[in-house]
């Protein structure tokens, strides 16, 4: 080995310059290590699980108009553009506020009213949420007459994962599974609507807004079950384009 | 222990090392973020940054844990050991940024404090697959930050060496915690086998080098072990010419490593364990009449075992005698600073 004579050299760290052969040995290897580290960076970067094409229009504030409804989570019922005559005439968008918080304390006083509000869009597939700026809430009409388009409930058993609607619909990527569990629990605990995420064989996702047997919020009680595979038995109904799953967390089953 | 921490000073080598370290970290983060965004245009910056910082810190810890055994296997790695402290501080900083970002992102802006959330948001302590992996990272971070904060020789002197060394042995605990942090966290979620392979290679490299170095140490101990030649306790070490000038011969006597240094025709026996960080003083050299430790260059006068002023370290000395051209050692330490053990070979040179 060419560098063998370096073994006779004696490196003393506090001297201005190290012995030449030893320093050559170290320099060559350090450069290799740096190359190796950059290789690890590339491998680690490309081996991540693919990211969802959901979106949070962070910082982009828009104005929306619609009727406030509580299911019990606040939703904004907005008119759909007439372009699609076959589909329903309205969409229901979930509402949230900044942070890991639900919007209910801010929207409750305006239940049933037609309002104008400002906020940023969060969307994934065809599900939409608005992170609203509460101080922009303005009433346009105290009581808005609107057809109740709720369906009857049918019993159902579903397998899926509880996610918090805010992160999953676009604020965090990934917004589900174990690494996101703590965040999902925090969001749901703060009032963000919990959603049961169910995938069919092809991986297509369906969302069910998760509430108690009487349609009440059960956020605190679903916390131990978030972000892991579970089976939920309850009854499902629709309200416009929202699917609502009433179920007793007592009967959730871990898979 | 007074002024011993002044021993660490700046020099061109150290500056180059730090500059290279900084460039490497920036390059690593840049490559991770750049490649990440090109490969996954849908990715969010926070997630990529969190992962870039976490993997960079974890990789740096692997490097740190490899340097020690490499230097024991081949002394040409010693220049990296000398500056390892800066690598440690850099690694702890990366861990702190990763942990801080995670705390903000996953636990901040909620209905309880981020710290409370860190320990309560995942209650599945009884499940392996669902085990709360974030508190494991936090525990490791506490160790790494404590180590970084106390890494300066000022703290070594003030905490006393045994406390400081115990604290710094916790690096292996931190490593174990981080392996679990990754195995029970990110690995539970990733779909590609590459992260698992990377982690496996990392563990095998660190573990393998540690085993090799420990085996070499045992071999060395086996070679240097001698048994007492008589009931008076004196040990027949070797013929006086056998020790190369300026170097030491190691003796393992009653479980203690003793270095017999030769400086010209003078022989002196010192404890082979450096007072600084337990470095292998017996693998040191005599430079300018002082025994120099190969790890960080602490110096000791061979005759009395004392560091030159203003330093105050002392290693124990042992009685030596020359009988019929052979060196004899009594492995009972002399009172600290005692010069009487040193002996002169009467002009005999190898
Ligand atoms: C308070 C302390 C810490 C917290 C809260 C924390 C949190 C997290 C979280 C949430 C993830 C998963 C991120 C994801 O993949 O989406 C993660 C992954 C990871 N952490 Fe930590 N961590 C902490 C400390 C550390 C430390 C000190 C290190 C090493 C120096 C570290 C290294 C890693 C690595 C290598 C990964 C896997 C790559 C990744 O997914 O980012 N963590 N950590
Ligand atoms: S261990 Fe640091 S100089 Fe000897």
UniProtKB/TrEMBL annotation, chain A:
Record-given protein name: Uncharacterized protein
Transmembrane segments: 30-47
Domain of life: Bacteria
Keywords, comma-separated and alphabetical: Membrane, Transmembrane, Transmembrane helix
Automatic annotation (TrEMBL), chain B:
Record keywords, A-Z: 2Fe-2S, Dioxygenase, Iron, Iron-sulfur, Membrane, Metal-binding, Oxidoreductase, Transmembrane, Transmembrane helix
GO molecular function, one term: dioxygenase activity
Domain Rieske: residue ranges: 235-329
One cellular component (GO) term of this entry: membrane
Family annotation (InterPro entries): Fe3_Rdtase_TM_dom, Rieske_2Fe-2S, Rieske_2Fe-2S_sf
Residue ranges of the TM segments: 20-40, 52-73, 85-108, 128-149, 169-188, 194-214
Localization annotation: Membrane
Annotated Pfam families: Ferric_reduct, Rieske
Topological relation to the membrane, as annotated: Multi-pass membrane protein
Protein name from the UniProt record: Anthranilate 1,2-dioxygenase ferredoxin subunit
Organism (species): Saltatorellus ferox
């Amino acid at each position: 080995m060419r560098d063998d004579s370096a073994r006779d050299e004696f490196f003393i760290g506090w001297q201005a310059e190290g012995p030449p052969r030893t320093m050559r040995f170290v320099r060559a290897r350090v450069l290799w290590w740096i190359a190796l580290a950059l290789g690890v960076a590339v491998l680690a970067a490309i081996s991540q699980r693919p990211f969802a094409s959901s979106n949070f229009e962070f910082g982009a504030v828009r104005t929306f108009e619609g009727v406030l409804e509580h299911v019990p989570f606040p939703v904004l019922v907005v008119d759909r553009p007439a372009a699609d005559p076959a589909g329903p005439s309205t969409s229901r968008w979930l509402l949230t506020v900044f942070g890991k918080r639900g919007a209910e304390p801010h929207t409750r006083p305006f239940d049933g009213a037609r309002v104008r509000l400002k906020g940023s869009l969060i969307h994934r597939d065809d599900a939409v949420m608005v992170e609203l700026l509460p101080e922009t809430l303005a009433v346009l009409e105290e009581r808005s007459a609107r057809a109740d388009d709720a369906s009857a409930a049918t019993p159902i058993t579903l397998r899926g994962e509880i996610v918090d609607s805010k992160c999953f619909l676009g604020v965090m990527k990934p917004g589900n599974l174990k690494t996101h569990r703590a965040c999902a629990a925090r969001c749901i605990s703060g009032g963000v609507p919990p959603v049961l995420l169910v995938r069919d064989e092809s991986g297509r996702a369906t969302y069910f807004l998760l509430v108690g047997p009487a349609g009440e919020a059960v956020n605190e009680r679903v916390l131990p079950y978030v972000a892991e595979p579970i089976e939920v038995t309850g009854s499902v109904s629709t309200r416009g384009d929202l699917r609502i799953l009433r179920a007793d967390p007592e009967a959730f089953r871990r898979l | 222990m007074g002024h011993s921490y002044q021993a660490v000073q700046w020099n061109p080598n150290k500056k180059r090392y730090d500059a290279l370290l900084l460039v490497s970290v920036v390059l690593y983060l840049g490559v991770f973020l750049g490649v990440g965004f090109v490969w996954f245009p849908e990715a969010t910056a926070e997630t990529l940054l969190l992962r870039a910082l976490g993997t960079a810190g974890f990789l740096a810890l692997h490097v740190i844990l490899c340097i020690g055994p490499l230097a024991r296997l081949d002394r040409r790695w010693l220049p990296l050991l000398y500056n390892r402290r800066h690598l440690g501080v850099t690694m702890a900083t990366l861990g702190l940024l990763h942990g801080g970002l995670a705390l903000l992102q996953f636990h901040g802006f909620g209905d309880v404090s981020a710290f409370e959330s860190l320990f309560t948001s995942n209650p599945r302590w009884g499940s392996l697959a669902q085990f709360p992996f974030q508190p494991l990272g936090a525990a490791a971070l506490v160790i790494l930050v404590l180590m970084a904060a106390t890494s300066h020789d000022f703290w070594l002197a003030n905490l006393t060496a045994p406390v400081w060394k115990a604290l710094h042995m916790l690096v292996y605990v931190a490593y174990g915690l981080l392996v679990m942090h990754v195995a029970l966290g990110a690995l539970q979620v990733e779909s590609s086998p590459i992260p698992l392979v990377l982690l496996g290679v990392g563990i095998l490299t660190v573990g393998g080098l540690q085993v090799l170095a420990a085996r070499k140490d045992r071999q060395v101990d086996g070679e240097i072990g001698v048994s007492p030649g008589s009931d008076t306790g004196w040990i027949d070490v070797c013929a006086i010419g056998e020790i190369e000038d300026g170097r030491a011969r190691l003796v393992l006597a009653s479980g203690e490593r003793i270095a017999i240094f030769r400086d010209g025709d003078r022989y002196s026996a010192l404890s082979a364990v450096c007072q600084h960080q337990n470095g292998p003083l017996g693998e040191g050299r005599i430079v300018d009449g002082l025994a120099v430790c190969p790890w960080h260059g602490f110096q000791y006068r061979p005759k009395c075992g004392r560091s030159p002023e203003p330093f105050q370290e002392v290693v124990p000395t042992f009685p030596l005698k020359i009988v019929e051209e052979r060196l004899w050692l009594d492995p009972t330490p002399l009172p600290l600073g005692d010069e009487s053990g040193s002996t002169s070979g009467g002009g005999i040179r190898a």
